[in-house]
Amino acid sequence: MTNIKDLAKMAGVSVSTVSRVLNNYPFVKEEKRMAVLKAIKDSNYQKNINAVHLSKGKTQMIGVVLPFSDYPYFALLLKGISKQAYKYNYKLLLFQTDYMESREIEALKMLKQKQIDALIICSRTCNWSTIEEHLLFGPIVLCENVNKKLVSTTFVNHYKIFYDALEYLYHKGHQRIGYCIGRKSGASSVKRNSAYRDFINQYNLPDNHDYIFDDCLEIDDGEKVVQYIKKMDTPPTALLVTNDQAAAGILTACQKAKISIPDELAIIGFNNEPISKIMNITTIEIPLEKIGNNLFLQALSGEISNQEIAVNLIERGTV
Amino acid sequence: MTNIKDLAKMAGVSVSTVSRVLNNYPFVKEEKRMAVLKAIKDSNYQKNINAVHLSKGKTQMIGVVLPFSDYPYFALLLKGISKQAYKYNYKLLLFQTDYMESREIEALKMLKQKQIDALIICSRTCNWSTIEEHLLFGPIVLCENVNKKLVSTTFVNHYKIFYDALEYLYHKGHQRIGYCIGRKSGASSVKRNSAYRDFINQYNLPDNHDYIFDDCLEIDDGEKVVQYIKKMDTPPTALLVTNDQAAAGILTACQKAKISIPDELAIIGFNNEPISKIMNITTIEIPLEKIGNNLFLQALSGEISNQEIAVNLIERGTV
Fold first, then answer.
1. Could A249 and B274 be called an inter-chain contact, meaning their C-beta atoms sit closer than 8 Å?
2. Mean pLDDT value of segment A220-241
3. At residue A75, does pLDDT exceed 90?
4. Which domain of life is it from (chains A, B) (predicted)?
5. Is the Cβ pair A86, B93 closer than 8 Å?
6. Min distance A261 CA to chain B CA atoms (Å)
7. Beta strand extents in A5-122 (DSSP E only)
8. Residue B188 predicted with pLDDT over 90
């Protein structure tokens, strides 16, 4: 079987040059790179690539578990992860789980089998003990605060952010406050709902289930929220909207429906996406891209660290 | 070594149930699934997962080659691909190549080694012969018209779309027409540039390099285009902007700078993203998500087909 020394001989280059080419490092002269690639081709070397991975214990592949890649929250996280993966020339293996535990377990299994070098879990269904069983097999990085010393995490405090935003609206004079969310089932959604419940209990506010809207993912989803609100006898006077795309859609639909913003309806978006700046939407800046960057770097380094990322309320024209 | 029959015995279920669990098919009773998972755990079965892949010749993994995943054009293609991958429970392996041939070759090599079931190439640097060498090893799907019968493709005619849009602006009375693009180096950028050159030669229009702006990727990039235009003695009177995010940014910056749209500057965006609807931007609808869907389904089926996707000019308020 051809080995790396044979390749170096065939290509007339050093072993370290072959290694650089195999690992796609930059700074190899094109001429030498071509010579190595020719040697690889001539010698049918591809059969050994797995052996190279084994000897290094590296696949240059990092797994990313996320329920759906097209929900803005996860899309922005993934963007941050991808930017770093690109920079370090790592491939990303995407597991879109729809919160099915079997798909999460499949990802963990691939870590166990060394088919990926590390695993980033953006959101999950499986319980901590399932994660714990796999910690020995490679770095696992979580995007949540699990209060464990065994695993790297980068997270925001979804409960506190939601509660603080609700109190902010309350102190601005609002009592009928609702919120719009992507899906009810995610881990952050559960925390947000619990903040909302605690808030209305604390301030003794009406508990109106009609004030909670789900499936608010994109600009186009704003229209249906506004149609619904228009039909209510006592509509909410303020909405927390968990992504700026949907907030922009609600704002536009209100403008069409002659609902005055913020006088008749106050809106707080999330993420400080560029569209919120253009449309002058008050928003809570969760630096998801930065969190994504961090998750990747934690997965890459393998050293355990835990980081809470701060958020900012950016006051603009919709409250 | 434990095999699938042993697992079935240990779990007290049928072989086909074990197979269903291993392949993550739905419709397995949770109780049976747990029994199989326990048997897998108890028997240390993970060593055989690769053997399962081998026996089926399937990894449930499809590779996606794209230069950068965060450029809107590719992000939307990837969104379409991801939606189908999610639906069919396939994992996606992302190769972000920055148009480096070595990274494309790495992807092709993984197809050759059966580490992925199929490969979708959204844009590439390597030449056709490199692709051709790998056609035997599994389905390769391209997002361009290569006029070959050997490979599946889904594509739009970037040259014609750009030329037609330029002529449309010309017939609206514009002679000083520029364009904004993400990066100059991509395959579609080259075709667009060649359409632009042919157009200005055909109509004998001024060949002003200052009318071509690159790095126009996001909303925030609009500002610098407008700053630049403001300083010109003879600014362009119309711009083709190859994504709606940047078009929205230019529109907003013009509103701030008191440049009247469309009287002083006409704008045509691309992709018909929701933001173009909200901001009433004339745009060319390239159904990138649909193209992404199609690319995945072609990769999955493995049958060769070639499809040109039609585009629409959506006339709104910016021309």
1. yes
2. 95
3. no
4. Bacteria
5. no
6. 16
7. 61-66, 91-96, 118-121
8. no
Tell me whether 0.85 is exceeded by the ipTM: no
Provide the residue count of chain A.
Answer: 319
Q: Where in chain B is the domain with CATH 3.40.50.2300?
A: 61-156+289-309, 158-285
Predicted pLDDT of residue B57: 62
Q: Which pLDDT does position A52 carry in this prediction?
A: 44
**Contact A274/B37, CB-based, under 8 Å?**
no
Optimal mutation site among A278, A279, A296, interface B, most CBs of chain B within 10 A: A278
Q: Which CATH superfamily, name and number, covers A158-285?
A: Response regulator (3.40.50.2300)
Domain A4-56: which CATH class?
Answer: mainly alpha
CB-CB under 8 Å, A89 with B94: no
Q: Which residues in chain B are contacts of A274 at CB distance < 8 A?
A: 218-220, 245, 249
* DSSP E strand boundaries for chain B: 61-66, 91-96, 118-121, 140-142, 152-155, 177-180, 212-213, 238-241, 266-270, 283-285, 306-308, 312-314
Cα-based torsion angle of the residue sequence A60, B72, B290, B242 in order, rounded to the nearest 10 degrees:
-140
pLDDT at B56 over 50: yes
**Structure token pair of residue B160:** 């014609």
Find, among B225, B235, B156, B243, the residue nearest to B195 by Cα.
Answer: B156
Structure tokens at B12: 């007290």
Structure-model confidence comparison of residues B5 and B79, the more confident one: B79
CATH 2.40.400.10 fits A61-156+289-310, yes or no: no
pLDDT of residue B69: 82
| Separation CA B190–CA B125 (nearest Å) | 12
Of B46, B113, B245, which has the smallest distance from its Cβ to A112's Cβ? Answer: B46
Give the residue from A103, A129, A131, A203 showing the smallest Cα distance to A163. A203
Average pLDDT, chain B: 89
Size of interface A-B (CB pairs under 8 A): 105
CA nearest A161: which of A188, A197, A143?
A: A188
Query: Domain B61-156+289-309: which CATH class?
Result: alpha beta
Among the partner residues B47, B249, B278, nearest to A248 by beta-carbon distance: B278
Contact B24 A252 (CB under 8 A): no
How far is A42 from B32, CA to CA, in rounded Å?
Answer: 50
Helix (H, G, I), strand (E, B) or coil at A144: coil
Q: What per-residue confidence (pLDDT) applies to A179?
A: 97
Q: Quick one: pLDDT at residue B143?
A: 96
Residues of chain A with CATH 1.10.260.40: 4-56
Q: Is B285 helix (H, G, I), strand (E, B) or coil?
A: strand
Angle at A237 between CA A236 and CA A241, to 5 degrees: 75
Residues of A in contact with B220 (CB under 8 A): 274
CA B14 to chain centre: 42
Q: Please report the pLDDT score of residue B105 as a whole number.
A: 95
By the 8 A CB rule, do A195 and A159 touch? Answer: yes
Residue type at position B315: E
Q: Is residue B19 pLDDT above 90, yes or no?
A: no
Model pLDDT, residue B48: 40
In chain A the beta strands, taken as DSSP E runs, fall at 61-66, 91-96, 118-121, 140-142, 152-155, 177-180, 212-213, 238-241, 266-270, 283-285, 306-308, 312-314
Looking at the partner chain, which of B79, B103, B218 has a beta carbon nearest the beta carbon of A70?
A: B79
Cα–Cα distance measured from residue B281 to residue B25, given in angstroms and rounded to the nearest whole number: 44
CA-nearest residue to B102 within chain A is A24
DSSP state letters, A288-316: HHHHHHHHHHHHHH----EEEPP-EEE--
Is the pLDDT assigned to residue B52 strictly greater than 50? no
